[in-house]
Description:
By secondary structure, chain A is mainly alpha-helical. The first copy, chain A, contains 5 helices and no strands.
Amino acid sequence: MPLQIELISLNNEVFRCFMGWSAVLVLKMFGMSLLTGLWRFITLTFANPEDLMSPKLKVKFDDPNVERVRRAHRNDLENILPFFIVGLLYTLTNPSAFIAINLFRAVGISRIAHTLVYAVVVVPQPARALSFFVALGATAYMALQVILAGAF
Amino acid sequence: MPLQIELISLNNEVFRCFMGWSAVLVLKMFGMSLLTGLWRFITLTFANPEDLMSPKLKVKFDDPNVERVRRAHRNDLENILPFFIVGLLYTLTNPSAFIAINLFRAVGISRIAHTLVYAVVVVPQPARALSFFVALGATAYMALQVILAGAF
Amino acid sequence: MPLQIELISLNNEVFRCFMGWSAVLVLKMFGMSLLTGLWRFITLTFANPEDLMSPKLKVKFDDPNVERVRRAHRNDLENILPFFIVGLLYTLTNPSAFIAINLFRAVGISRIAHTLVYAVVVVPQPARALSFFVALGATAYMALQVILAGAF
């Protein structure tokens, strides 16, 4: 078995794949902030008095477009952020490169799909449920592998 | 002092303990998503029009069972996710194995207890407050050790 | 190019700077939990029946002071937590120490400023927007560097 140093390395294609998808998913999440802001300006829905650009506006919390993006964003927090630690620790268990790389791709692509069908163009179910469960399943599998290599 | 490479290693019992509890807590958090979904179906409380299974249903945001699990889940985001980076960096400061392992156990067990008394079987206070502060205190202690080893 | 082992090391000033700011930002985030609790007690705004200290109280969800701190805290989850993985992976790309250290400082200082102007003393816009975008821009730049070193 290689030392962990050889695993946390730009020479390890598994680690480089983890880097690529992690950074893409962070940028995707930042896109949710910008999309929320965009909808706030389009619908003039601001949550703080100091954000109101005119004395005629009042704070509002219930615009369906803003809230939809916020729900999608919260779902990212619940699923993508745990992937970051699990993917890193899974890389350190020295997994099969083929399996690991395709799991990272599955998480990355399915979370991008989740955003598209939830917050960009609303697609009927089960589109969102499917994309949700692919990423959840892949991350849960990695977590199980980390547990098998871990201790308590 | 050992090199950090010897710390990020399956041969380091502190690191393996961090791996085990981190992965367990990620699975626990995913359990919150499933529990939220379960309550949504039991109480027919759906937040998106495309989730409604019958034209008689309307979107709903105020079911107390759904909202209770969502509050517990958000509390996880606020406390467990910061633990992931702090625990990893704390491991790299080469802490006493005895202290580090028991801090990880304290965080893991108290966060599981927090979920049980908040979102599974509601237990009167101070059960939830106690489990909350044990994990917070342990993570804050680790953060202070990381700051002492860090720079600005 | 150095091995990644030399990068994840207390001898690497970039890594130590990442450690210091990460741990400070975690403690800052925990401060949001305490500030939320403080406002809950001041305004007697409790979200759970088991938290009510008197039978005369009822659960409440709409206190503006509590909700303001909660919005600031959620903004931390959306921006600081992604910084943790991006900052770590960026450190592993062996960046210029000058650039990396100042990016970490920019994120740390601007996120502390964001909290101060949002949740402690409300300062008119664009104070909050500026602090938000400095941290977002710095983290997004790091994410792009990680993508360039990564794979898919």
